[in-house]
Amino acid sequence: MEGMAEHTQLIDAIDIRTTIRAYDPDKIEDDQARQLSMTLDAVNMLADLNIQLVRNQPKVFAEANASGHYTNAANYLAIVGPRNDDEARERGGFYAERVVLAATLYGLGTGWVVGSWDKAEAARHCRVTNSQEIYAGVVIGHPQNHLTYTAKKFEELTEIQRTHRPTKSFEELTRTMSDEARAAAPQWFRDGMAAVAKAPSARNTQPILFSWDPETGTVVASIDPELDGPYALNDLGIAKLHFQLGAGTGEWGWGNGAMFIKK
User: What sequence ranges are listed for the domain Putative nitroreductase TM1586 (predicted)?
Assistant: First the structure.
């Protein structure tokens, strides 16, 4: 991808990542699969999860491909972790999105999967023990007309990202803050929120709210109770990762309502 050598950080991936629904039929090459596997090994060690890459299983997406929701979807990441573990679900969103951003830098297209796959069929092709479950999935592959796509300059890809779907405003994503607090918010918080606005979420609901406390300098992320649902914890993890990358150094606690401490 032209210009990608200068844009190898995950924050740059945030600026060009879009949800891809149409894929070329070309298989993910072994070299790219090895790159992804190395990324997965490192991420799984950090996350204490078992996120897996599964290739060449179009049956998993047969209905979605037939309906036109996807085109040529055949590969996926299965986010696997312990059953009934809310923190693990959140970690799944956080760390699997790191893999998504890495895949973006490799020139691959991705899209978080909510209901548009056969989850039982997906489970047949990966390792899920009796004490584990699949939290969610990510379809992955070469974007349609990918040779044209990868020839685009970084600036062209950022413009595609900026205009590909509507997003909530800074005010909407921080609606629990007062106008005075928003006006006083430091630039690193605004940078974090700019990255949050570009985060994927289930059905594009963007259900995570952020607030900065001017007295303590801490940030809290919480699930909007009006938009809570089965994938909200996954979305919480994704949004926290985007914020952390946008804000720079700092660290989150796990859980709904946990704090981010800027370092």
Answer: 10-247
Q: Give the pLDDT of residue 8.
A: 45
Return the number of other C-beta atoms located less than 10 Å from residue 93's C-beta. 27
Residue 155 belongs to some domain of the structure = no
Parent domain of 197: 165-262
pLDDT at 92 over 80: yes
The 10s digit of each residue's pLDDT in 124-143 is: 999 999 999 999 999 999 99
Element (H, E) at 138: strand 132-141
Give DSSP secondary structure letters for 6-44: G--SHHHHHHH--B--BB-SPPPPHHHHHHHHHHHHHHH
Q: With contact defined as beta carbons under 8 Å apart, do 142 and 109 qualify?
A: yes
Domain contains 160: no
